[in-house]
Known about the structure:
CATH architecture of the largest domain: Distorted Sandwich
Distance between the termini: 44 Å
Number of domains: 3
Strand content: 25-35%
Bound molecules: alpha-D-galactopyranose
Structural class: alpha+beta
Radius of gyration: 27 Å
Largest sheet: 9 strands, antiparallel
CATH topology of the largest domain: Beta-galactosidase, Chain A, domain 5
CATH class of the largest domain: Mainly Beta
Amino acid sequence: xxxxxxxxxxxxxxxxxxxxxxxxxxxxxxxxxxxxxxxxxxxxxxxxxxxxxxxxxxxxxxxxxxxxxxxxxxxxxxxxxxxxxxxxxxxxxxxxxxxxxxxxxxxxxxxxxxxxxxxxxxxxxxxxxxxxxxxxxxxxxxxxxxxxxxxxxxxxxxxxxxxxxxxxxxxxxxxxxxxxxxxxxxxxxxxxxxxxxxxxxxxxxxxxxxxxxxxxxxxxxxxxxxxxxxxxxxxxxxxxxxxxxxxxxxxxxxxxxxxxxxxxxxxxxxxxxxxxxxxxxxxxxxxxxxxxxxxxxxxxxxxxxxxxxxxxxxxxxxxxxxxxxxxxxxxxxxxxxxxxxxxxxxxxxxxxxxxxxxxxxxxxxxxxxxxxxxxxxxxxxxxxxxxxxxxxxxxxxxxxxxxxxxxxxxxxxxxxxxxxxxxxxxxxxxxxxxxxxxxxxxxxxxxxxxxxxxxxxxxxxxxxxxxxxxxxxxxxxxxxxxxxxxxxxxxxxxxxxxxxxxxxxxxxxxxxxxxxxxxxxxxxxxxxxxxxxxxxxxxxxxxxxxxxxxxxxxxxxxxxxxxxxxxxxxxxxxxxxxxxxxxxxxxxxxxxxxxxxxxxxxxxxxxxxxxxxxxxxxxxxxxxxxxxxxxxxxxxxxxxxxxxxxxxxxxxxxxxxxxxxxxxxxxxxxxxxxxxxxxxxxxxxxxxxxxxxxxxxxxxxxxxxxxxxxxxxxxxxxxxxxxxxxxxxxxxxxxxxxxxxxxxxxxxxxxxxxxx
Length: 756
Ligand code: GLA
């Protein structure tokens, strides 16, 4: 049983394989948060709370003259509300019919449901009934009649608990939500740090670790989408925790819109973490009877370090967020023409790329931007999703059919949310572009954005794209969005409801994606937001992979993919081998290094293959066969970060089969030194008692013959799992700048001479 309820003491305990979460409805009907952490028993942890009179932290009326130690300002609560005596950051702020901003949430009951709850119209973790249970706890503000239902999904095997909130106005007067968070988590004590991921276009997912200090720390987005600038995901850990040790929590917001994740250390050193919709652009009116769902958060805890938190989240996303035919199906190795041609191509050029790609073992050709409308650069044509037949020299259908006839699959780039002023769509429907009447809108990449909060716009896009995709043999779509949103206003919303725009936009996007993915189940959709501008678990519900960054430089990708690996699985990360000098940085790296980097993701190419030398083409063939050989291990294995790209000389990561029978180590020298200190790697996830052999993968074996390799690589050399874990192996030295190595570790029988 994952959900244990003590009805007498009103204690709710959620047990997962290795963690425990607990709440209690106290004598005042306040829902206290009593525990989240390493697995423990079901006993009431609130008995261990300590309360004292904290001056200026007031007391609820009923206790004000009896017990000055009881204050909402210092108690650990499950879902805090603004305006009634809790002065910390709070999870819910409402405006009542009389204009007051206050809610007093009190416990009224609970129910347990079989399986995992779902949220209509929004992404959420899903699971079979046998894999999950749901607990719903009801709170109420009796004055206004607002009901707040806290939803908990417990996936015990995965050590995952999800949270979402449903708010219903059961009163007669309107209630306006001003801030609505999906979760509030209070810690009675502890010295914490948090890890978040900041960035910018072309340089997403930078790792940042800071102490939680007195005051408020926050990351978030008011850009319409989850953004390049901050990813909607954080890790909170006890000070000193590392990859393998320490108590750590992961929080992933299953949402693609504006978010806020805040932490506050209060006057008595308690920590509060809140995650929800960003309140700055948000308000939502609930008439009597109306309901509002606050999106879901996935939480996980590990007592064994940050690495385990990541692996829990990888599994949760791979198995319980990603859906559809492509969830577990082997994805094709693709070639995208963007960095090969940008906007300048003809149909013949594209076919030549596809033909050559086919010869090298590539399986899917993706036609990127520039194939539609009058799109010769990024200033025109967005919205006109009709092929430019003059440029292609044929219809899109003919082009796709010719590519398919070459034995390649065909894929296409779309940016359905974008609209250029210079487009037929804009000329027909200028009111469909987001902007405030009477003000000039802000342009970004010279373009505007379509008002996806409008149903007529959603319906138009569904219809246009269904017709387009239904008319060509297409198996892949790259769904891009190349600007952030400001000047937020929708012609379809009353003045009092303009604060609903951003969330309605995201709901509209989800509706369109749900329809299209349902209509075209065979199409592999890849999300893109100018690279990683919308890299979140919400998008992964509709599309199992996301283009990680517009930077394809292998060395920059080390830190982008390192950052992403904390919260997202390899199978979600769109990665390509591109040309050198790299188009974003001018850096030259070996093809083998670029291949190694791209194999830490979905793997593909994005370069003009007609310019490659015969040697490079041979190497690409080898890379593709290596990737395919280890596909299952790479995409489904357990991921370990060994050395970070942010320090030292060599970034190392490992993917091990959960059985411990094999592992793939990847190492990239991001800093090359003379007379280097050996890079020693303690291999994880193996079986102590088993023997293992080490092999360089194809590309590396032949490329660096004659190089003296460390012990373990020689024929017949067998090392125990225990020795590889405790003593470790040495990564071969770099023989050129930005050298990479890929080492395959395979279980094998010990030779007869092995000491028993
Ligand atoms: C975005 C994407 C790129 C490419 C261009 C095309 O920047 O991230 O990969 O598709 O748009 O305009």
